[in-house]
Protein 1
Amino acid sequence: MNFIELAKNRFSCKNFSDKALDRDSLNTILEAGRLAPTAQNRQGQHIYVVESKEGLGKIDELTPSRYHAPTALIVAYDKNNTFTYPGDKCDSGVEDATIVLTHMVLAAASIGVDSCIVNFFDPDKLKEQFDLPDNEEVIAIIDLGYKAEGVKPLEKHFKTKELDELVTFL
Ligand SMILES: Cc1cc2nc3c(=O)[nH]c(=O)nc-3n(C[C@H](O)[C@H](O)[C@H](O)COP(=O)(O)O)c2cc1C
């Protein structure tokens, strides 16, 4: 599969089967995140793997968007280990962690693991529930697993803008 096919094939899975994610697949996904570029190569990301009944239950209390996924990754970054852009307006924390997240989601798709990126939750409440350190900010959860029978991408997955709406040659 070439990259464009892979990118087209990935979709947000909103109903997972009971099938557990095997350790090799999880390791491949985590490794893809480890290899992601970060500003100044600071690698401030921190990924939490949630698979226990208790942990998944906590996630369910915070968001309706786990969709029975057997594995959930919490993607966080160390706010004291980011690159601050000249001008001091923002730092690289969110984008570094987002690139890590994107590597993991696409790696999942490349090995037939379904996923959904989730940010419909209060990150401070999540930090509290899992007792995460003060210096970390949570950007998203990634649901991982295998789609339930009959699950297909939602219609909006196919409603992508044309290149000329998104790209300007200067
Ligand atoms: C940053 C981000 C946050 C998202 N949060 C949620 C969420 O909380 N719940 C959910 O069901 N889907 C969520 N999604 C999935 C999007 O709705 C979905 O990616 C978008 O509609 C395009 O569909 P596709 O992923 O199937 O191509 C999120 C996606 C992104 C990129």
Note: The pocket of flavin mononucleotide is lined by residues 11-12, 14, 65, 116-120, 140, 153-154, 156-157 (CB under 6 Å).
Protein 2
Amino acid sequence: MHFDAIGRVPGDPILGLMEAYAADSNPRKFDLGVGVYKDALGLTPILQSVKLAEQRLVERQTTKTYIGGHGDAAFGKVINDLVLGADNALIGQQRAGATQTPGGTGALRLSADFIAHCLPGRGIWLSNPTWPIHETLYAAAGIKVSHYPYVGSDNRLDVEAMLATLELIPKGDVVLLHACCHNPTGFDLSQDDWHRVLDVVRRRELLPLIDFAYQGFGDGLEQDAWAVRLFARELPELLITSSCSKNFGLYRERTGALIVCAGSADKLLDIRSQLAFLARNLWSTPPDHGAAVVATILGDPELKSLWADEVEAMRLRIAQLRSGLVEALGPHGLGERFAHIGVQRGMFSYTGLNAEQVKRLREEHSVYMVSSGRANVAGIDATRLDLLAAAIADVCVS
Ligand SMILES: Cc1ncc(COP(=O)(O)O)c(C=O)c1O
């Protein structure tokens, strides 16, 4: 039979973790696994600004016909402004263009096909560790995947090792950088580090690709775009993948964009013709709803202000959970050991807990996190920080 030789690949370990969590009858359980934002009630709610925008769309939308290969032009404009800054010279010079994609993953996938087809022979360099989909997605497009060090076995950001490897990367290769809220570690580069990375990228003539999946979850909507805007200002060419999954809570609506910054308006048109062609072979035209919601919100000053407040509330909750957990670990003599949790940014924290400790946390305390020791801080119940700290102390000390 045709299918006889087809085997089974293992499922995503995070999905397995979600199933185990759901099956656990312990009412004191913690879900620190799956990478979605959760509020104080443990829910991932629809933002109020999104609800209001959706109501408007239901009332006003007149057609469901296809949108173009680059998606909705209004979305393209607002996402360019959000990421690059509305006053960015590149936008005025028509040197930056957004192509709407199904989520940030779609943007990454389109970037992979763009590299494979338009820049053949270029390899891509990923941080070690990185979001696991980066690894498989670029390999699936036939691109050689290599790594630069990022966080060492001592669970510290190792910028010197990172820079030393970047110095050795062949000219023309692509370097994938996380704009902020590094997944999975939570360790971000300082502004000084970013300047040093920029210097190597420029000297070695590397092509940066900045994955921007958590704008607003680190230090603020504008602050988180700092490195992206630095690179856009200082380099003639840049790829940026933007996701609206987290900051608009639009996860399942699959909303994102691949933004290309090119040396001239004319070159951008060349590249955009290629992207439309490549996208046509991937998903034809992108899904509309999430992008229409984003365009509605960002195109209306009142909705935009409501949304910015909602993002800020999510960001603050995460920041407070970080400092709260470090504080709760203090009485166990572990405040210093876990101080990095307060320094890291975004939803994720490389806690430094090893696989055995993670296993014990799950089996003995119903605390669920990925075996690498990555915890989704946003999944913590703020009223039970002491309980979580006690569980961590138990597996660390005994
Ligand atoms: C680093 C990183 N990039 C990109 C994405 C893509 O997200 P989505 O496809 O849901 O927009 C994620 C989501 O978890 C991520 O963590």
Note: Residues 301-329 form the longest helix (29 residues).
